[in-house]
Amino acid sequence: MDVKRFLRCVMAFAIAASAVAPAGATTLIRESLDELVRSNRTIVVGEVVDVHSNWNADGTFILTDVRITAHDVLKGNVKDRELTLTIMGGRVGETTTLIIGNPNLVPGNSYVLFLNQEDLPGVKALTVRDLVQGAFDVTIGKDGLRAVSQANAHPLLPDARGSFEAEGGREGFQLNSMMQTIREIVSNTGARREVK
After folding, report:
1. Distance (Å, rounded) from C-alpha 5 to C-alpha 95?
2. Is the CB of residue 151 less than 8 Å from the CB of residue 133?
């Protein structure tokens, strides 16, 4: 292979790689707990019961339905203790759609979830609009239950104050303290908490 042809191949590969890289990236600007509370209509503490992926009605995109049993509703109107949310991506047969920055919701695990009705491909559904920033793993720490943001595993762009660390940091929040703070923010904004 001559040098000119080799350089053209290298340049073509570099151009193709640079064009593809941004499309696969998810960029998230850090959100504070206050912003998460104010910008989402429903906030629950609950356990994932079941996860099921399927094609949307048009057969053009894979979506995953996640059934949750809500142990506590911190904001919003929830008709009963079980609700279903939908996230983009998933696996159907041999086809996988991967969304970078998507929350990881596993059956049997508990989470604090910030949810909103949004337009997803082919459906309007309750979802974790803020991706990993809207999902906090409930874990057992040395001082009891803690809520740790899944955004700790994802790079965030700094917010207006220059902070880029996920809310609660690597150790997360003491769960009861976080729940109380969320209730105070909801109360100060006039939003109602209701379970029917």
Report:
1. 36
2. yes
pTM of the complete model: 0.82
Using 50, 70 and 90 to split pLDDT, how confident is the model at 189?
Answer: confident
* Percent of the chain clearing pLDDT 70 (strictly above): 83
Q: Copy the structure tokens of residue 17.
A: 């790689």
Please give the Cα distance from 45 to 164 (Å, whole number).
Answer: 25
Tokens 């769960």 belong to 175
Q: With 80 as the cut, is the pLDDT of residue 40 above it?
A: yes
Q: Which residue has 């959100």 as its token pair?
A: 31
| CATH of region 28-195, choose from 2.40.50.120, 2.60.120.260, 3.40.50.720, 3.30.110.70 | 2.40.50.120
Q: What are the pLDDT digits (tens) for 56-86?
A: 999 999 999 999 999 999 999 888 889 999 9
Q: Are 196 and 80 in contact (CB under 8 A)?
A: yes
Residue boundaries of the structural domains of the chain: 28-195
Q: CA dist 54 to 119, 151, 166, Å?
A: 17, 26, 31
